[in-house]
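Worked problem 6 (solution included).
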Amino acid sequence: MLENCKTAQERWGGVHQLIDRWLENRRDMLVAFMDIQEACDADPEAVSKACIDRFSESLMDYISEGHFEIYPQLREEAVAFNDHEALAVADKLLERLEPSTQMALEFENDYSTPVRCQHYASRLPAWLERLRKGLTERFALEDQLIARLHAAHSPPPTAEFSPSTTL
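Solution. The predicted structure is:
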């Protein structure tokens, strides 16, 4: 996607745009999570398959985008900046993301059909609590990954006003 960019600004500005879009997708996934959590709090047995599917699709899309678009772009950026330390950190962080990826895949599998949704309805509150904890940790790791592999190589934003500025 970004391979044809000619300048560093085009290239890494494009990565920034990918990250912005991905973080927006994170927000959308969290809205879907809150919707399913709210429905589950009212009556776990009555949570609709459509509500579960909305969340599950959003979760799978978010995780896939991270694994197949964002993480490779961040690694490529670290390689381009010859940042071997960042690559080592990235490998450790990516390894730590694996449990939450597996958890998301298990959730998707458990609630993949109407029959399975009905069968596992009583487990939904516990699943949502597990996912809440796993996603909270995942977001912290992803934020560290972005900070170490992208923000470290980005030029500082120009500030029009800073606390040290005198009026």
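Discussion: DSSP finds five helices and no strands in the chain.
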